[in-house]
Amino acid sequence: MTEAFERLKRWARRLKTEVYALYLAYKDSRVPLYARVFAAVVVGYAFSPIDLIPDAIPVLGYLDDLVLVPLGVALAIRMIPAAVLAECRARAREVMASGKPVNKVAAAVVVTVWIALAVLAVFLVARWARPL
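The structure corresponding to this sequence follows.
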């Protein structure tokens, strides 16, 4: 059981590195526009706290994390030129080895979106609760 768990942990680390390499490739001007757009969507979905299927739903909730993200990563990798991908993978491994990448701007955007959604929800509930 522990060997299977260790293999799963190694796979998850490799997937994180690949997603970060896609993030780096997305920013590279040598990557075709269609590949950049697709890579941005995959990276955004992988790092987003919002899932297509909520994790609270048993089994199906983790299906998107276990199937959609790896499938998206695999497709995006095929779209990126090999030389660019090799450079991005090397940079991603360096960053991951020195500690997880930290992006405070992205964190601020996610927090801002969540706050805006909460304010919108409160506004809508208050409006619908008002008698006509």
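The CA atoms of residues 48 and 110 lie 8 Å apart.
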